[in-house]
Amino acid sequence: MAKSTFMEVLSMASVRILVYSDNLHTREDVIRSVGRKVGEHSIEWTEAATHEGAILKVEEGSFDLLILDAEAGKLGGIGVGKTVRDEIDEHMPYIILVARPQDRWLARVAKPEVILEYPSNPRDLAQAVRSIVEAKVNA
């Protein structure tokens, strides 16, 4: 059996994505929209229903991408994203989901890679995930 090249091994690796929302249906919608694969990579999904849980999971784990619900109670996705970037990993890519278009200005403060309205078009969300994962793999 031939040895795998580094790029072949990398292409078979899974991508770890954390989705944070206090709404179970939002988390399910995100996972269903993106699916279980992005390109050649399988996706390992981790869910967080509280901001404390999301931050703890980021501290404990190694994620390739965060998808954060700005509408989550207490500390929404904008605050979680900013906390992660300021205190844990300044290079962590994340997507913010906003319920209203007028909330985009607030989401920009946290400097996410992508801001999408939620409910979002599943293709737009899947494409945003694909773009971020491909950029990370090709970096």
Named at the architecture level, the CATH assignment is 3-Layer(aba) Sandwich
By CATH, the superfamily comes out as Response regulator
CA-atom Rg in angstroms = 15 Å
CATH class: Alpha Beta
> What structural class do you assign from the helix and strand content?
alpha/beta
Kindly report the average pLDDT value: 89
Number of domains: 1
Helical content band:
40-55%
CATH topology: Rossmann fold
Order of helices and strands: HEHEEHEHEHEH
The biggest sheet, with number of strands, parallel, antiparallel or mixed sense and barrel status, is: 6 strands, mixed
Shape: globular
Widest β-sheet, arrangement of strands: 2-3-1-4-5-6
Low-confidence stretches: 1-11
Q: Can you walk through the features of this model?
A:
This is CheY-like chemotaxis protein. InterPro entries: CheY-like_superfamily, Sig_transdc_resp-reg_receiver. Keywords: Phosphoprotein. This protein has helices spanning 6-12, 24-34, 51-60, 77-88, 104-109, 122-137; strands spanning 15-20, 37-38, 41-48, 65-69, 94-98, 114-117. By secondary structure, the protein is of the alpha/beta class. The protein has one domain: 3-Layer(aba) Sandwich (Rossmann fold). Strands 2-3-1-4-5-6 form a 6-stranded mixed beta sheet, sandwiched between helices. Helix 5 links the parallel strand 5 (94-98) and strand 6. Helix 2 (24-34) packs across helix 6.
Short description:
The chain has 6 helices and 6 strands.
Brief descriptors of the model:
alpha/beta; disordered N terminus; Rossmann fold; 139 residues; six-stranded mixed β-sheet; 6 helices; globular
